[in-house]
Design brief:
single chain, 20 strands, about 375 residues, seven-stranded mixed beta sheet, four-stranded parallel beta sheet, about 20% helix, 8 helices, alpha+beta
Amino acid sequence: MFVFVCAGCGARLTAPLAQVALPAHAHQQYGNGIQLPVLMEPGTFAVEPEPWGPPWRRWQEIDPGEAEARGIHAPVHALSGGAPGSIVIAPGDTRGTVLLPEESGGYCCGLGWGDGPNMACEGCGLPVATRIDDCSVWQAVWLAPGAVHRLPVDDGDIAVLSWTELLEEGKGTPPIEPVTRWSSPCGLDHRWSWSPAWEAAAGRALAHMLAASAGRPVTVPHGLVAEVFRRALDALLPAAQPASRAVLAGPGRPVPDEDADMILVPTHPQTGELWIPEGPGASAYPVPLPFGVWRWMAFPEPHLRHPASGVMPDGILRDDPPMPRPPHLFRADPGTFRHTLVRLPAVRSPWLREILDNLTPHMHAGLF
């Protein structure tokens, strides 16, 4: 467990926190006028290893050698000129800070990045963090890496759970959930939609699947995996060549066979490490999925849970009707897809670069 303190005066700025993996949807921008929830679980923090936040530099201002050194293999709109190592926490875990509203950007429905930190240390006034809660972005506080120090605390160590223990916890991420709009004239407007976290996870995974396909078609298992990936894979890849085969693999699943070209595997929610099989399936390309998304794909629940008050007696099952379906087919998140693909060397291939360059028409076609 750690706390973060002000680099200027040493004042404590956070509650005790345990480190976890950076969520795949950390930088997602979802829809328009959407009220997204808090990014991080209370009591946790994650680190963005890349530079993130202002100042931003347009692609035309960046030397190709610099972009290559940063692991960017195709053009992007802009790159951050900030320092690497930003720390993201839940807003409720901050302590001893004050807001600097004059330094905030956004203001469509809340606070955005602006030109720099919009939170300061209450003790010495040093700008230390940026509070984000504008519409269509995940609510979070990003601590500036040069303005804070991390210190261990004696609140007990957090054990890293084994894959078996993670399965026993039973924490999956439902694929469908209610989302809230700010734009309704009557106030908040709720509707059922595909989970934004699922769309981001699919965007990252789809980029890896295309890169691993080498331009060949890809087959995926029937069911929820097919609903998420098959339409985009069939539209973006040719159908005339021998197909690559992608399968679900992971703890509690059958061992992948040697014919699998790709395996959709979970990332550990605490460490970010990929689950890697032993045996013949170990040579397959691992496609990362957040553990909660992977768990629901691997062990889907028959009905999504409705919010309810009170406690049902032991042994009694609810008989609520099925959850409403979203009004459109599943679409991978385009921003997360682009963010991932430009960081994969395979994007230099002309056919894959063409997909990237035509992302907007693919969005209009409903693939993203």
